[in-house]
Amino acid sequence: MASVARSRSVIVLVSLVTLLVVFVSAVECYDGRHAVAYSAVARRSRLGTRHVHHRRTTVPHRYVLAEKSSPTGSPKNRSISPATANNASAPAPAPPAVSQTDGWHHRRSHKHRVRNWIIGFVVGSLAGVISGLVLSVLFRLALNCIRGRYRSRSGVMIFTPKLIRRPEHLAFLEKEDGLASLDVIGRGGCGEVYKAQLPVEREGDEPRFIAIKKIKKHGGDAPANNNLSDEESRQLDKRSRQIQSEIRTVGHIRHRNLLPLAAHVPRPDCHYLVYEYMKNGSLHHALKAGTHTEIHGAEDGNSSTGGTGTAAGGLSWPARLRVAVGVAAGLEYLHVSHQPQIIHRDLKPANILLDDDLEPRIADFGLAKAMPDSHTHVTASNVAGTLGYIAPEYYQTVKFTAKCDVYSFGVILAVLATGKEPSDKFFTETEEVVGLVKWLRRVMESGEHAQAIDPAIAGAGHDEQILLLLRIALFCTKDDPKERPSAKDVRCMLSQIKT
C-alpha cells in the first residue's frame, strides 16, 4: 500500500510539473505573437501618419477661404488674415516619435507584469500543492512508523507504542518455550490467553501487564507441510496475506469501547495477539461474581474498594446499563462508522472486557473472520459461534451479516437484565428444551415480568428501566433479520433510558 501511495504521489507530481511547463510555454508563445503583431501595427500606423502629413503639407494656400471679420466678432463674419491662414493651413505638429515609443514600452511592460503575475501565481500554487503532498507523505510515513505498520526484523508489529515501547519487550515470544512460565487466564475456541508483565524500564514505574492470545494456525498453514501443489501454496499465501491485512486493520482501530490490538507476533505455527490486560475480567465473570474481589481479578490479589459499580450479584443496574450502552456504541462504530464494515461474529459476555472504570471493551472484533480456525465453543458444519448467541438464519444460510451481530447483542441485553445465560442449567434441565430467547418471549407475553428480572437488581427502583431493556432485547432477537434494528438504532434507544 505504501509503494502504491508513493507511486501515485510521483505521478501527480510529474503531472503538475508538466502542466506548469505547458502553461509557461503557452504564455511565452502568446506574448511573442502579441509583440510581433503589435510591432507590425505600430509600423503601419507610423507610415500612415507620415503619408497623411505629406498630403496635408501639399495643399495649396489658394484653396483656403477667408471671410471678413464682423464687428461683433461672430464666427460667421470673422476674417482670417493671410498670416493666420498660412498658420491654419500649416500641418499640425505630429507627436514626437519618442512618446510613441514610450507608450509602446509602457504597454509591453504592463504585459510583462501581467504575465509574471500569472506565472508567479501558478508556480506558487503548484509549489504549495507539491509541498503539501511531500509533507503529507512524510507525516504518513512517520505515523506508520510510530503505529508499527512497518515490521521489525523479527516480524513484530506494534500498534500501541504507549503500552509496548520497544519490540525487545516481546522478544520472549519468539522462543519455543516463551509461554511456558506464564499464567493461563482464559481459554477459548481459538486458543489460550496468557498474562505477562512487561519489563520495568525505570525504577518507580508501575508494572504494566499484557494479555497474550495464542491462536493456532490451520493444519495446512504450517510450513512443515511440503506436499502441497502450486495452487494450494498460492491459496495459503493468499490466506496469510488476508490475515495480515485483517490484523493491520484491527490494529489501527481506536474507540473507547473497543479493546485495541497492541501488537502482533507471527510464529510458524501460531499467531500471538497482544492486548492490554483488563484486571476486571470479562462481563461473564463480572455477572457471575459473588464478591467484589472476584470482579477485580483474583489473579492480582487486589481487592476492590467497592462503589456503585458492584452489587451482590456482581454488577449493579446502573453499571449494567452503562455496559449495554457502551457495547452498542462499539458495535455501531464497527458496523457504521468504520470502513470497511467489521462484523464481530462471536459477540458474547466472555468477549466483553471491563476496564478499571467498568467501561466495556469489545474484544476479538474483526478477527473471527480472519483466523482460519476461528470456531469457538460450539460449531456445526461451517457454522462458527457460541450456542445461544447465534442468529437462527445463520444456521440456514451459513452467511453472517450485521443483523447476526444485532441478534447476539440482543441476547447480551437479555443476560444483563435476567442474570441468566443460554448455557445455564435453568434451560438445559427443563423437560422442554427452551432457550433464553424463547423463554423470555413467553414470560413477557404472559405478563409475568417479575420472573424475567434478575433478583440481584430487582426491587431497587429500576424495574421500569429493566423492562424497557428487555423489550429492546426482544426487538433485537426477532426471527426475521429485516425486522431487527440496526446497531445505530439500538444505541439511540438505549441512550434514552435514564438511570
From TrEMBL:
Pfam families: Pkinase (PF00069). GO terms for molecular function: ATP binding; protein kinase activity. It comes from the Eukaryota. Residues 81-91 have a biased composition (Low complexity). Residues 231-240 have a biased composition (Basic and acidic residues). Residues 49-106, 218-240 are annotated as: Disordered. The chain crosses the membrane at residues 117-143. It is found in: Membrane. It comes from Miscanthus lutarioriparius. GO terms for cellular component: membrane. It is a single-pass membrane protein. Residues 69-80 have a biased composition (Polar residues). Its main location: membrane. This is Protein kinase domain-containing protein.
